[in-house]
Prior knowledge:
This protein is α+β, with helices and mostly antiparallel strands. The chain contains 2 helices and 6 strands; from the N terminus they run αββαββββ.
Amino acid sequence: MNHLDISQIKEIIPHRHPFILVDYIEDYEPGEYAIGYKCVTYREDFFAGHFPQEPVMPGVLTVEALAQVGAVAILSKEANKGKIAYFGGINKCKFKGKIIPGDKVRLETKIIRQKGPVGVGEAVASVDGKTVVSAELTFMIG
Length: 142
């Protein structure tokens, strides 16, 4: 298994606080897949307004976290080092549950297709083994 801590992740993707949404990578294979985790705390900036009486991680940020894990997978390939992975599209996105303070979110993105600089990742976020978000993410390497 290939592990990455936050400092190693920051060597691969350009995201920084407060927008880096993955805490560590448990395993990855360059160009194939990555499995990471986001440990959600009540101190996350977005909880101040989403929602004050019932804090819920915004679904779009969960999709972004999945994209960042996918970016680790694709940008860790030697040919892509130093590049940026941009969103090209979000398809088949389903929100099936909430993410709340205290949750440890498992983020898994598998690269299922790539042709030149464009590719597609199959992404699933889960909490305690239950899928909370799934999507097909299209990316472009720039």
